[in-house]
Design a protein that fits this description.
The chain is mainly alpha-helical. The chain is 42% helix and 5% strand. The protein has one domain (5-146): Winged helix-like DNA-binding domain superfamily/Winged helix DNA-binding domain (Arc Repressor Mutant, subunit A, Orthogonal Bundle), CATH 1.10.10.10. Strands 1-2 form a two-stranded antiparallel sheet. It is globular.
Amino acid sequence: MKVSAQEEYGLRCLLQLAPLDADEYLTLAQLAEREGLSVANAGKLMWILNKAGLVKSIRGTKGGYRLARLAAEIHLSEIIKVLDEGAIAGHCQSHTGVLDTCVHTGNCGIRPVIIGLHDIVQQALQNITLAQLLGTEAKVLNRLYQIHALPRHVEPTRTRA
């Protein structure tokens, strides 16, 4: 499964909000700075998350963003569904070949595999809450092993320094 930049940064912004107390808020500028995003990009993500009911926003000098629910009540499957821009739903709708439509639209042996893999990923993400992603990488990894969201033989790969 490939995680898009929008999914990753949306999730990272939510993780910035997760440890806040109920009366605390982070401004768009604070979120953008903490995640190394432009304010415009952070604003787009927070608009999407607010529209989906995952965050609440308050205007004014003491305003900003906070989670709409407890981090333990927000599952990754819900976050990814909001941020994935319909990648699976549109799988067979877009076609990059030379024809207007895929020649396998009526009978495709690949579609069940793609949909099946998507379902497996969704089930795994349904078992992970935002609260379970708080902490060091080692603690999160151990937590994910304990809830069987990751098989023991999976080791994280480092793509960034």
